[in-house]
Amino acid sequence: MSRVVIVGAGPTGLWLGSELALAGVDVTLIEQRTERNPAARAFTNHPRTLELWASRGIVDRFLEAGHTVPHSHFGLLDDRLDFHDLDTRFPHVLILEQPRIEEILEEYALGLGVDIRFGHAFTGLTQRPDSVVVSVSGPGGEYELEGDYLVGCDGSRSPVRAAAGIGASGTESTGVSWIAEAVLDDPPEVNYYSAHSPAGNLLIVDVGNGRHRIGGFDARPGDQDDSAVEFTLAEMAEKATAVAGTDFGLRETFWRSRDISATRLADTYRAGRVLLAGDSAHRIFPAGGRGLNTGMHDAHNLGWKLAATMNGWAPDDLLDSYHEERHPVGAAVMRFTRAQMPLMTQFTPQIAALREVLSEMIARVPELNRILSENTSGLDVVYPPKAPDAHPLTGRRAPDLTFGDGTSLLGLVSTPARYLLLDLASHPLDVDEAAPVVVHSGTAEGDRPDWRNVTAALIRPDGHVAWATEETGEARQAAAEAALKTIRR
Ligand SMILES: Cc1cc2nc3c(=O)[nH]c(=O)nc-3n(C[C@H](O)[C@H](O)[C@H](O)COP(=O)(O)OP(=O)(O)OC[C@H]3O[C@@H](n4cnc5c(N)ncnc54)[C@H](O)[C@@H]3O)c2cc1C
């Protein structure tokens, strides 16, 4: 037995399974559903997620299926976040619905050999010193799976989190969101429409194929989860009209759902051989499209570390760094999205005034737009280095540097199985190009002040900077050798 078991074939589980398979790890993924959830809710895919897909060579599959908009929002304010100046190959949001995202991810995972078992439900776990035994209920009855590690990618109710005894805490619900996929006979002229009034708010997004997402919030305290309660087309039309003065010709819906606005963050992302990623680790208020994106980023951080552990070259503390790095990111996303809750779920004159003031500031203060955009897009994540004298780039996401030979960083960081050593000086480094490192020599094009004097850098498989130096000559050679020693056992 040498295997990772994943529970949940949502976006997080599918991406994690693919990362592990790409690094040569045997993966079994169990999913209780027998068919995809047509009401899976996300549609906003942020620049950092597009970069991750690009680094594995599959971003075009997503881009071709959806459409892009060069902006996002903070708290559904009227003045939107302008993504034009973001330092990325993808300065826009991709509008593509979650069922289609899952379809593409599933096809990719199956192509890499991930063993996906639909109709198989996780029912329990037992941790042993060297393995974890997973109880499964499948179409043929109950059975057990043994794995080296178990990852719960099983959504916000997470049976895996409960079985592992991991607690979660957060805020109670203060309102109920409603959302549907609909046909509108008289849709808004813009493909991303939002409105706010004392009666509530309304968001309408063109998702292609003649369909629109339409939704909003009802201010209603309480944690009562009435997502299963049916709500009618007439109710939806009434809510839309109360806010916007029109129901935009709302004619037909393909699915409708409601959700509460409670938030939760798991106390830890790892308990022994059990790890959590995605909504099982964090239930995020849906402001600006962060849940699916953050789950993908969790999986991208965990995938290569788990693969390195399974493949035998990881330093002892590498797997623990998953919680150390991603738990603070989960907490930060919670904070950022919670800050938007009053703006999106309260409809008093005071909040209306706050919305107006903040909206004007976003439009008038470019620095504010930049900070909020970098956060929302997922591009500003830094994993703080442990060494106090680390180069300032350490832990930051490496930008998509381009080189004279036509390559670019996103193409070079193409696998979760190895690091990339960038040799940026004219005199080549003398290093052993053995697993888990590949060397690329060349000078980066363009002028990036942060990178101007960097002579070598080591990029992690997830695209973050592990080490960088501005040394030259023998000092550079010695520093590179020392850095390479730290990344493997
Ligand atoms: C209204 C709304 C809009 C949203 N819009 C966006 C957006 O635009 N962008 C964005 O980034 N996020 C958005 N989100 C959040 C996004 O939908 C979730 O964050 C995302 O689905 C999380 O993915 P996941 O794979 O972690 O979990 P899930 O998608 O919940 O997948 C978990 C999987 O685990 C399976 N499972 C559960 N229990 C078991 C078991 N016992 N055995 C086997 N399998 C099991 C489930 O069947 C499911 O398939 C939105 C959320 C809401 C409510």
Q: What key phrases describe this protein's structure?
A:
binds flavin-adenine dinucleotide; 5-stranded antiparallel sheet; Alpha-Beta Plaits; FAD/NAD(P)-binding domain; alpha+beta; 489 residues; Glutaredoxin; 3 domains; 6-stranded mixed sheet
What general form does the structure show?
A: globular
- Radius of gyration in whole Å, from Cα? 23 Å
User: Could you please say which CATH topology of the largest domain applies here?
Assistant: FAD/NAD(P)-binding domain
Percentage of residues in DSSP E strands: 25-35%
In this structure, how is the largest beta sheet organized?
Answer: 6 strands, mixed
Helix and strand content put the structural class at alpha+beta
- Mean pLDDT equals 93
CATH level-1 class of the largest domain: Alpha Beta
Detail the poorly predicted runs.
none
**Total number of beta strands:** 26
Strand order of the largest sheet: 8-2-1-12-21-20
Distinct compounds present:
flavin-adenine dinucleotide
Looking at the overall shape, the CATH architecture of the largest domain is 3-Layer(bba) Sandwich
* Total of helices: 13
User: CATH superfamily assignment of the largest domain?
Assistant: FAD/NAD(P)-binding domain
Number of self-contained structural domains: 3
- Helix share of residues? 25-40%
Distance between the termini: 22 Å
List the helices and strands and how they pair.
Layout: E1 4-7, H1 11-22, E2 27-31, E3 44-45, H2 47-55, H3 59-63, E4 67-69, E5 71-72, E6 81-82, E7 93-95, H4 98-111, E8 115-118, E9 121-127, E10 132-138, E11 141-147, E12 149-152, H5 159-163, E13 168-171, E14 175-184, E15 192-197, E16 200-208, E17 211-219, H6 233-244, E18 250-260, E19 263-266, E20 270-271, E21 274-276, E22 282-283, H7 291-310, H8 320-338, H9 341-345, H10 349-364, H11 366-376, H12 409-412, E23 419-423, E24 437-441, E25 456-459, E26 465-469, H13 473-486
Parallel strand pairs: 1-2, 1-12, 2-8, 12-21, 23-24
Antiparallel strand pairs: 3-7, 4-7, 5-6, 9-10, 10-11, 13-19, 14-17, 14-18, 15-16, 16-17, 19-22, 20-21, 23-25, 25-26
